[in-house]
Description:
By secondary structure, this protein is an alpha+beta fold. It has helices spanning about 10-15, 45, 55-70, 70-75, and strands spanning about 95-105, 115-125, 125-140, 145-150. Helices cover about 20% and strands about 30% of the residues. It has a four-stranded antiparallel β-sheet, covered by helices on one side. The longest helix has 14 residues, at about 55-70. Residues about 10-15 have low confidence and may be disordered.
Amino acid sequence: MSKPRKPSRTVQQRARRKPPAPAPVTEDSPCPCGREASYGECCAPFHQGRAAAPTAERLMRSRYSAFAVGDTAYLLRSWHPATRPAVLELDPAQRWTGLTILATTGGSAFHQEGTVAFRAHYEVRGHTGSQYENSRFTREDGQWVYVDALPEA
C-alpha cells in the first residue's frame, strides 16, 4: 500500500485563501437596501449625516445598508441610547446580500413609534442564511432611532 501524497504547497495555499471580497459600494452603486436608487442618492446621505431618515422604514433600510458597507459608527448613532451597545463589531466574513421588508406599522412622519418586520439575507464562509426581525423604532430628539427587536410571537 502506498503512502498518501501530501497536497502540493499551491493547493494548501489556495485552501487558506479568503474568498474574494465583493466590490466596494460606491456612490453610484445600487443601494444595498434594495430601493431603486444609487447608494449616493439613497442611504449614503444618512450614513454621512447630511440627512435624517424620514420614516422608520427608511431608517431600517439605512441600517441594513450600514451593515452591508461596514459603517458601525452610523449603526451606533442610529441606535436608541437606552439600548445601544458600547461597542459594535461586525464579522468581516459576513456579506449582506438582500433585504425584504415584510410589514410596517406606524413609523411615518406623523408617528412617534413604528415597527418594521424584515428578512435580511447574508452569506458567510460559503453558507447562505437569513435573519428575521421585527424591529421597534421611536423618535429621539425628532430623529428616528432603532430601539430593539420585538419578541417573536
